[in-house]
Design goal:
Helix content: 40-55%
Strand content: 5-15%
Distance between the termini: 114 Å
Strand order of the largest sheet: 1-2-3-4
């Protein structure tokens, strides 16, 4: 009889200990505070287009190759390319007007370059669209135009080479048929697609298409 009472007591004690362990396991852990510190790695990346804004460069995953140009040209080229990738029209206009006495963005167009580029991009009816064209040609080989400025693409020169024409077709901005049609024109006037130029001291002069 005593043995039976002792056994019951042991079971009761064991049961109490098990219940306590279960309660401890079910209790939620204390909250943990995590502090995230952002570190500037020094790597420059183009910011994405603003939410809800259409941009012809939104699917581009590209890098800008280094070119043998003066540092003022290289610095401005990088800045323009980054703003074009981000469709940052205001920044592009700021860069266009930062130096020099003027900037050509269309023939016959007036008003703000930023508003012009935005309206063309949002309409989506031109092919190619300007931001895609600007980002693409700046990554292509350059030439020197009649005033000595650094100009893109290389097809924009008095006597483009076969390679310059082929680079233009390979870029995807224009079809082979369109490139062949431009090539049949006389001299530099044969290339009437998007082109741009920067002076040796870093003045962005134009970004335009057409005649």
């Amino acid at each position: 009889m005593k043995v039976g009472l002792l056994l019951v007591a042991v079971l009761v004690v064991a049961g109490c200990g098990s219940e306590s362990a279960s309660d401890e396991a079910a209790a939620p852990p204390p909250p943990v505070t995590v502090t995230v510190t952002e570190t500037d790695t020094g790597t420059e990346t183009a910011p994405p287009p603003e939410q809800g804004e259409t941009c012809s460069t939104s699917t581009i995953r590209a890098t800008l190759p280094e070119q043998d140009v003066p540092e003022p040209v290289a610095e401005l080229r990088r800045a323009i390319w980054g703003a074009a990738i981000a469709c940052d029209y205001e920044e592009l206009e700021r860069l266009a007007l930062e130096r020099g006495e003027g900037f050509t963005f269309s023939y016959g167009g007036a008003g703000s370059a930023a508003d012009f580029w935005r309206s063309v991009e949002e309409a989506g009816t031109e092919d190619p669209l300007p931001m895609l064209a600007l980002a693409t040609i700046l990554a292509m080989p350059f030439t020197r135009n009649e005033s000595g400025s650094y100009a893109w693409p290389a097809a924009y020169e008095e006597s483009p080479t076969d390679e310059a024409w082929q680079d233009l077709a390979d870029s995807g901005l224009y079809s082979q048929a369109e490139v062949d049609a431009m090539r049949s024109g006389a001299g530099a006037g044969g290339y009437l697609g998007y082109r741009t130029a920067i002076t040796a001291d870093g003045d962005w002069q134009f970004f335009v298409a057409g005649d």
